[in-house]
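Input sequence (330 aa), recorded before submission:
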Amino acid sequence: MSDNTTQPAPQGQLNQGKKSASFVRILQDNISLVALVVVIVFFSVSADGFLSLANFWNIGRQTAVITIIATGMTMVIISAQIDLSVGSTLALGAMLTSIALQATNSVIIGVLVGLITGLVVGLMIGIFVTKGGIPAFLASLGMMGVIRGVAMLVTHTRPVVIYNETYWRLFGDGVFFGFLPSAIFWTIIILVITHVILKYTSLGRYFYATGGNRQAARFTGVKTDLTIIIAYIMAGIMASFAGILQSSRMHAARPNIGEGMELNVIAAVILGGTSLFGGKGTIVGSLLGALVIGSLNNGLIILGFSTHVQMLVRGLVIIFAVMFAASDED
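Predicted structure, token format:
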């Protein structure tokens, strides 16, 4: 007579299975760091000049815009929302800042105009999503076109040249402490501020709670609508500030800058471990994700690949990042 009783798996197999699961979990939790190391090693071997201090400074400057916008996008995605308008907000913020600079020759007024522009854009999208009941994807997609159109209309698609040297030195061409490029300096400031907000303040906890379970958060007293609006305001301000940096480096603001920037930013944030489903993510992770994107672009340029190849690689990065995020949720 045969015995059909299921035999328990040997202890060794159970331990091996646990070790494999733990390794996969560690890989998923640190995928941005792993990807950054792989990218650096690959281009260090294949691209002459990649592994140099001057090029690393260059990557930092090139990545500054993506990183700064990614800090705001991280808050939005942690809140289980999305913002496709950041590239257009960058352009509009830069255009209005430049116009204000031309009119007043005041850096303070120009920067305030740019930051207020981002605040207003974020406020509008947040209200559309929370009070208007429009899905975040559609609200931000619609605003992306509206904002880009306004950026083109204010000067009839003409660029605005910036002649203020103080503005250049503060945000574009300058150096702080004798060695630190201004773009990297401001990136560090933004990273510290947003990291503190997310990790050490009640607002940060509200972002995570709202994204994790909006209904449960509301029952515990969290004003989820206000939290989402604030997340969009932060994203708008960061996008406008990135536009200030971009226009300062270029010595001009153009209405077409920032096109497609939202793809780079979302790729950086998701690759950095922020869950598309909300409730999970860190500023440090988004920084690592941005550095992966920046290092990829830089290495491909050194190797002589065209922008089309860069777009292809970024698209693949987004796909694989979403795959890891989805498998992490299972």
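Checked by second reader. The beta strands are 160-161, 175-176, 180-181, 252-253.
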